[in-house]
Design a protein that fits this description.
Blueprint lengths: L1 H19 L5 E5 L1 H9 L4 H9 L3 E6 H9 L5 H8 L2 E3 L10 H8 L8 E4 L3 H8 L6 E5 L2 E4 L4 H11 L6 H13 L39 H28 L1
Length: about 250
């Protein structure tokens, strides 16, 4: 069972690494419900989570989560102590603290630029996280930490990327820069004209002209013309002689 769970975690981590650029150290935002479940099930988060995710981990929380745990009193005192041992990430609720779930949601807005994992037992928070793309979700079940499979939203975004229907902005900028480096970008809005390559001579013009062959026994046309001309001159001379003869008589 443990090997199967580890295999699924490795597969899911590969998905987030390859498609959403998650890198070590992995930043995991934990709320009070996750800390309380870890305490109840005797799970050592700091020791076990790096091995499960297959890399270095930074455990962190927010001031809103800590204040929420403090407000709940002795019932969650142990969870508060665990959360206080983590790094505290700055949120935008310095003057007006919000609920722990609301604060964690605000930390993953605008495409989760800091590549946070969310660790929670709050089902309502988990459902809201699943509606966002590229956010790994951790929870505890049967005394074990589990990395949830990629959400439907994450799978849909990756499918669009693979079919070239959606190109991330940083990739668009990279493409433009590459085109400029290679001199392929349009300058002044004018399209580059294709150069006509110098071609060789027309092969048809290189063909030798064929000499006209006269059929055997047939005279060339120039000879025929000369014969016709001599015949006309002879007929004309004979006519003149006939006229002169008649006049003498």
């Amino acid at each position: 069972m443990k090997l199967t769970r580890q295999k699924h975690a490795k597969k899911n981590m590969g998905f987030y690494r390859n498609n959403f650029s998650f890198r070590e150290p992995f930043q995991v935002l934990l709320d009070g419900t996750f800390c309380q479940a870890a305490l109840r099930n005797k799970i050592q988060i700091r020791e076990q989570l790096p091995g499960y995710l297959g890399g270095a981990v930074q455990l962190c929380t927010t001031r809103c989560v800590l204040k929420e745990l403090q407000s709940l009193g002795k019932a969650l005192y142990g969870a508060k102590l665990i959360a206080q041992s983590f790094q505290v990430r700055n949120c935008s609720h310095h003057k007006d603290p919000v609920s722990g779930s609301g604060c964690l949601l605000s930390m993953i807005e605008e495409g989760n630029p800091h590549h946070f994992f969310i660790a929670t037992q709050d089902q309502d928070l988990a459902n809201k996280v699943k509606k966002k793309a590229g956010i790994p979700l951790l929870f505890i079940i049967q005394n074990t930490m589990v990395l949830d499979k990629p959400s439907t939203k994450s799978l849909a975004v990756v499918q669009k990327l693979q079919t070239n229907q959606l190109v991330p902005e940083h990739q668009k900028q990279s493409i433009v820069q590459l085109k400029e480096q290679e001199g392929l970008a349009k300058q002044g809005g004018e399209k580059r004209r294709k150069r006509k390559r110098a071609g060789g001579p027309n092969p048809l013009s290189c063909l030798k002209k064929k000499k006209k062959k006269t059929q055997e026994g047939q005279e060339p046309s120039s000879e025929k013309k000369k014969r016709r001309k001599r015949k006309r001159n002879r007929v004309k001379a004979e006519a003149v002689q006939s006229v002169q003869k008649n006049e003498e008589e």
